Amino acid sequence: MSPERYQRIRQVLDKRQTDLTVCLENVHKPHNVSAVVRTCDAVGIHRVHTVWEEKYQFRRGTAMGSQQWVRQTNHENIGDAMGALKGQGMQVLVTHLSDTAVDFRDVDYTKPTAILFGQEKYGATDEAIALADQDIVIPMMGMVQSLNVSVAAALVLYEAQRQRTIAGMYNEQHLPEAECQALAFENGYPRLFKLCQRKGLPFPPINALGEVDANDSWWKEMQITPLEAKALSQQEG
Ligand SMILES: C[S@@+](CC[C@H](N)C(=O)[O-])C[C@H]1O[C@@H](n2cnc3c(N)ncnc32)[C@H](O)[C@@H]1O
């Protein structure tokens, strides 16, 4: 990939917030999921958690926008998801229209935070609400009771982004270097990435010019000649 493209990728990955995440509990309409993931990418979320039954899994060909830049972890049930998030020291906020919910703008998002969004029709489950640390609500003044889930996600996430910007949390790299390199390789060199995965080889480093910086034995194991290697290591992206 070109040096410019690599620099652009690094600028984005260097702002990733590893201690801010979203959990989608059975949010399943592709356009909603896609819109939430896109907002997650825009505010610098590295990983989205989902609680999906088999039938809600992504299908090949679904247009997911920014999905290639946002990692996903699926949990079999809400208990597992909550356990994982709390195990990482996160406060878990559930977006829920209840009398006990606090205004979403009154929360401190500079703390390690997971925000749970509920299913389009039924909202968050009782179990999720019981396990969460706090209910948060976006005040509603109109005739309709709730917002579209992706709109709700955008509002809450941009409040988190606002607070974290003020706190200077986008000014330092949080994502481990190996993960930055893996994402750059995966997206910058998709064909090499797939071949590398098929062969079970480690991902090679990418140098400052955006080139694959592998040694001769790696290329040999990939069964790629030095001539092909030169072309391949500069071509994609
Ligand atoms: C369309 S709403 C679900 C409405 C459902 N009847 C309920 O009572 O929860 C889908 C999701 O969007 C989010 N949401 C929508 N409007 C919201 C609001 N005003 N405050 C907080 N979350 C909201 C929540 O995550 C909710 O689970």
TrEMBL record:
S-adenosyl-L-methionine binds at T95, I138, L147. InterPro entries: Alpha/beta_knot_MTases (IPR029028), rRNA_MeTrfase_SpoU_C (IPR022724), SpoU_MeTrfase (IPR001537), TrmH (IPR033671), tRNA_m1G_MTases_N (IPR029026). It comes from the Bacteria. It catalyses: guanosine(18) in tRNA + S-adenosyl-L-methionine = 2'-O-methylguanosine(18) in tRNA + S-adenosyl-L-homocysteine + H(+). Keywords: Methyltransferase, RNA-binding, S-adenosyl-L-methionine, Transferase, tRNA processing, tRNA-binding. One of its GO terms (biological process) is tRNA guanine ribose methylation. GO terms for molecular function: tRNA (guanine(18)-2'-O)-methyltransferase activity; tRNA binding. Residues 20-158 form the tRNA/rRNA methyltransferase SpoU type domain. It holds the Pfam family SpoU_methylase. Its EC number is 2.1.1.34. Residues 162-214 form the RNA methyltransferase SpoU/TrmH type C-terminal domain. Signal peptide: none annotated. It is an enzyme of class 2 (transferase). Catalyzes the 2'-O methylation of guanosine at position 18 in tRNA. NCBIfam families: PRK11081.1. Belongs to the class IV-like SAM-binding methyltransferase superfamily. RNA methyltransferase TrmH family. This is tRNA (guanosine(18)-2'-O)-methyltransferase. It comes from Alteromonas australica.
